[in-house]
Fold this protein.
Amino acid sequence: MELTVTNKQVPSVEVVYDGCAEQPVECDLLLPDYCPDIVRILKCTVTPVLRRKQQSGTTLTLEGDAQIRVYYISEDPAQICSADTTLPFTKNIELSSREGTLLSGVTAKTDYVNCRAISPRRADIRAALSIYLQVEALTSKEVLCGGTGGGIQLDLAREEVAVCTGGAEKLFSIRETFEAGYGTPVIREILACTGTVRINDVRALPGKGVIKGEAELEAFCRTADGGTDVITATLPVSQIVDCEGADESSRCTAVAEVLSCRILPAGEGEEGLTAELELSCRIRAYTSTEITFAEDAYSTCYPTECETVCLRLERRGENCREVLPLSVSFEQTDPPVTEILYTEVRTSAVATAVSDGFLTAEGRLLCGFFARNADQEIVYFEREAPFTFKKALPDPDEPVDAQLRVTPILSGVTVTATGLELRAELRWEGELRTLLTRTVLTDVRLDEEHPLERDPAIGLIVYYADAGERIWDIAKRYRTSAAAVQEENETESEILPNRCMLMIPMVV
């Protein structure tokens, strides 16, 4: 009987880029006319913001800007001043393929910043940014899933997998007015503003994904009485993202971040303060399905040649939201700090690893302190501390791809005679995907011109099998049928639980 095979398209996820690109920053900051002269620079921050991704062929273009802010002391040593500017940049990334729907996850970190005052009205800034990018292509591959004739024997496997049916990214803005709180002094200038976003719920609709959460803002302000203050606000976040391929049965994962934020006095006729935020959201929709594929093949009649391909599948994807409390002690400065005016916290690049059934992430908490010391000087200094995050995985034997973002949230800082006690929490958010990599068959060919030679006098072979052996492997060794071996030995087991004797029928 002539060989007939059945092929089927199955989904696959291919990594077309996974790496890091560097972006230099060079800028001369000229103070606006309304800013006082620079006497002493306290701190310079360079924050990378990625706003747009565009693909042309195998080139992925990233567009963003470096948000630069310089904090300094003017002729009045009791006041902190600041000036800012924005420097746009473009980065081209060469991908290994352009096939399929591309989904990407990208983060950017500042490696170092060097800032010096060239004159009382001008600062020279040099910095280096690192852009971490992973790009995946949603493709399909034709695999072998059935066959008859020619004595063909197929080692078929079935897997329940999560198919990513679609993904999308969206940039959106929020503008909300809020009360500063009772007793808050009149604000003259916002020196720094940071924001984080937390997604509390994500669900799918036909062609769309819906996210709900909240954004938390913190602003370091210079007040009308010449002092400083910190104000906070929590704003609701709700957004609908167009996501082709999603429906009500889809399970969605989502990651969001605040690109930029600022706080302004409310408009005419309004009370309080107005927050303006730019945010990005990345959403993916999944559906579960069972796929069948052949992992091995042979013929009981002819020599066999197989063609294979590596199939990368997702068994499941899920949102990860964890909170890690953190308490860190730092030594006192000289002269000692008497008052903390403002603390900024961020993290270095985080390294993740999976071993022994745990996901482990390690990084460093970077803390910057604006403070007043015993000499009544305003100073800025930095400290850092390591941290480790461990999470038990639901199935320790399955490989996991973790795309996590960690956001540090400051709880408070206490000044003591011997040092500083910092309390914070690390919020871990992102996607945990259980991956499945299999080598599967795409085609099989029989050499019908050279049939296998058999001894017609041998119809049955006695074989002593070890525990854990597969019936399939034994049958392949003797070029017979696995089903015939099971039938002859009255067993339905595919893997032998114990050492035993088997009767191997020679089936043609």
